[in-house]
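Section 5.1 Outputs to date
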Amino acid sequence: MSRGMRPSSVLSEAGRNLASGTSRAAILATIFVALVGTVAILDVRNVVDVLQDAAAYRAAGAAIQVIEANDGIDGQRCDRLAATPGIVGSGALRAGERLRALNLPSSELTVWEVTPGLPALLAAAEAPAGPQPGPGVWGPGVWLSADLAETLGAGRGSEIATSAGAMPVAGVYDWPDDGRVRDLGYAILAPVPAAGRFDQCWAGIWPVDEELSGLLLLSLAPDTSSPIRRQVNGSLGADHDAAAIFAGRLTRPAPVGALVIGLVLGAVAARLRRLELAAALHARVPKPQLAWQHLIEASAWTGAATVVALAGTAYAAALGNPDPAGEVWLIGARSVAAGAIGVLLGTLAAVAVTRERHLFRYFKNR
């Protein structure tokens, strides 16, 4: 190499070092993936855990608030609550005439008359066996709880013969015994117009917000007093602040940790070649061009390692994630990017502190 190296000479020298193994590219890339990739994946998995807990809370009906007042709920007011930001669905219900299924004549079946908003609320709760179509596209007919549908041998699109006549089945909803109120367990939901009085108003509120819960009082008819407020499922607690749990996760500083790992890795990789660096400086290679050469080499193996780490992070973000994986992947990608930047900064720092006058000391300690 000579003084005043051209850019092409810098590139060719970096290429030769990568091809010959002088850069230790394969080993360093493996270490990067193992360390920085692990940090990113741990953070991503923590975020997925937060999302899974939030989805489980919603699926169990814990985010659904109820206000109850016999014949004291205005059905139209209750349904209109769903238009409020933060309320994912709302609907009213009242007890209907009990009936018998002709293939189960010994048992009276519980019937709930519900406003159109209640099936949409059940869909928004994202129960595992909930309705498959989006809200508002179900055909006419009644809804059956999963347990009752299994007993009657009925399903969506079929008909059940009852003491009140044949009833088409518009959908089947899941209502497991997991702590939620048993009002809708082993029951028939019969959609009716929202006009008139009802006994209960249900509203799904997400994220959980006590002020929004107070809006259920707006569904009360003017002459109603002493309403009862409760959760559909109180077994998981009255509050679930997913945003606070996300912000307080132990792996939140992952990008900082990845940056530190990158800095150390880049600095160590360059310091291992300090004798080579000092010899090049002794041969009058300008330090800026020497820095560019080592940056090119570091960028090559870091780039390859970053692609592998991002692929692993994408898989970790999608595995078991109840939400779209893109945003979670971006959280992990920040750590990978921080690690890559750290490698380059560490490389620059190591080249910068290398001195020609230390050549013989480096030679002696090699």
